[in-house]
Structures are given as structure tokens and as C-alpha cells.
Amino acid sequence: MGYFALTASFSPAGITALREMTATRMKANLDEVAEKLGGRVVDLYFKASNLSLLAILDLPSAGSSGPLLQLMASGAFEAGADMMRVETSEELDAALGG
Q1: How far is CA 74 from CA 1, 39, 86, 94, 98, in A?
Q2: Measured between alpha carbons, how far is 78 from 54 in angstroms, rounded to an integer?
Q3: The model's pTM
Q4: In CA terms, which of 28, 39, 44, 49 is 20 to 30 Å from 68?
Q5: In terms of Cα–Cα distance, which of 83, 66, 85, 76 is closest to 9?
Q6: How close are the terminal C-alpha atoms of the chain, in Å?
């Protein structure tokens, strides 16, 4: 398992969908997708000023992120959604031999 940070900005269609489903329901939908991949949503944050999101996910591998990236390409988000592997301070210490 590893932590991944997913960032994306909502498109106009995504903003409309967010209004209709609520941010809480959007998190529940993301939870369902992550669970199907064998992972979980650690946390989900929204930035109201430009309607974007930051999701921290715990997934089995980078290869398991494909369906999440498909979700990002659904039209609900602007181009430029990004997913990256991130490490905890403990993981970085271990990688540095500490």
C-alpha cells in the first residue's frame, strides 16, 4: 500500500454535479472507487476559491490508480488533474536510512 495525492479542479459541469450531489456524496463515491481498487480514501479536501480538490488515497500500487484517472477524465474536472505518490515522514526516514 502507498499514499497518493490526487489534485483536480472542477469543470463547469463538475461544479453543477457537485451542487446536485453535495461534497459529502462525492467523497462517498470516491470511497467506493478506492475500495474497489483495494484501497481507501484517507482524506478529501476542497478549495472553495477555485473549486478544486485534494484527495489523499491509500492504494495497493500506482498501477491501481488507472480507474481514478479515468474518473478525473470524466468531464467533471478541468484538464491537468494530477496523481502522485507521496510518502509519510516515517517512509522518507526509512528510505534515507534513518
Answers
A1: 26, 21, 24, 37, 42
A2: 14
A3: 0.77
A4: 49
A5: 76
A6: 21
